[in-house]
Amino acid sequence: MRVALISSKGGAGKSALAISLAVEAMARGKSVLLVDADHPQGTCLIWAETASAAGHQAPTTIAVRANMHHPDQLPKVAAPYDWVVIDTPGRLSDVQRSALMFADIALVPTGPSAHDTWALAPTLDLLREAQALRPALRAAIVITRKQARTAVGRVVREGLQAATVPVLRAELGYRVAWQECAVVGQGVTTYAPGSPAATDLRALFHELTALGGTPDGQKASRPRPAARAGRAQR
Q1: How far apart are CA 33 and CA 36, in angstroms?
Q2: Which residues, other chains included, contact 184 with Cβ-Cβ below 8 Å and sequence gap of 6+?
Q3: Read out DSSP for 34-56?
Q4: In a 3-state reduction of DSSP, which class is residue 8?
Q5: How far, in Å, CA of 5 to CA of 105, rounded?
Q6: Residue 73: how many other CB atoms lie within 10 Å
Q7: Residue 193 within any structural domain of the chain
Q8: Single pTM value for the model
Q9: Domain total for the chain?
């Protein structure tokens, strides 16, 4: 399972979501590679260092550049891992194009406002270009930072009806656990396993694994890399 988080708009929660997806996959017994392609911000690398310092188990975390899809780059490094999660910048560039040449699934986080949905157009255009080259590439939109019991929260899906990319049923609410878990070097499901935020993330995880053809995250076992959890590599 190779998942790339793609968006032309910052603030959609890509980094936090990438981290928590990677942590959840690891909690389910998968070998996981977390890929930080968001330069110069480097949120995933910083988080991995925080996790290591706090003594929390974390996926192997590396930084890559725009040529990540080249055979001697990410495909070679990622081969032993069950899951690869790629965090990309909040602007479209060759980094996203390279990630889409490698990924099985492009996951597009979007906030719940009309402004957020309008800003999806460049991202969807890029996805169409990538799928023309790689028809097997799947894509999905996930609504993030949704505020319950608000008019905006209720009508956000209506604004996405015209999108050519399916919208996942799972939605991520605007919850403080997302901010708190990063500070202590954890994912939302390990930081607050019984919280609504964790329930949201698990629902998203199940949909992603089904979209990738691996219900409940099950797949044929592959050789696992040597334990390197919690080490951020530059």
Answers
A1: 10
A2: 50, 54, 56, 191
A3: EEE--TTT-HHHHHHHHHHHHT-
A4: coil
A5: 9
A6: 16
A7: yes
A8: 0.88
A9: 1
Structural domain for 190, as ranges: 2-217
Lowest pLDDT segment from 84-88, 121-125, 184-188: 121-125
- With respect to residue 224, please indicate whether it lies within any of the assigned structural domains: no
CATH number, position 204:
3.40.50.300
- Reference 60, options 68, 70, 49; nearest CA is 49
- Among the listed residues 28, 82, 88, 86, the one whose alpha carbon sits nearest the alpha carbon of residue 57: 28
- The percentage of residues in the chain with a pLDDT greater than 70, rounded to a whole number, is 88
Domain membership flag for residue 107: yes
Q: What is the pLDDT of residues 21-76, one digit of tens each?
A: 999 999 999 999 999 999 889 999 999 999 999 999 999 999 998 999 999 999 99
Q: How far, in whole angstroms, is CA 230 from its chain's centroid?
A: 18
In a domain, 37, yes or no: yes
- Please, are residues 99 and 37 in contact by the beta-carbon 8 Å criterion? yes
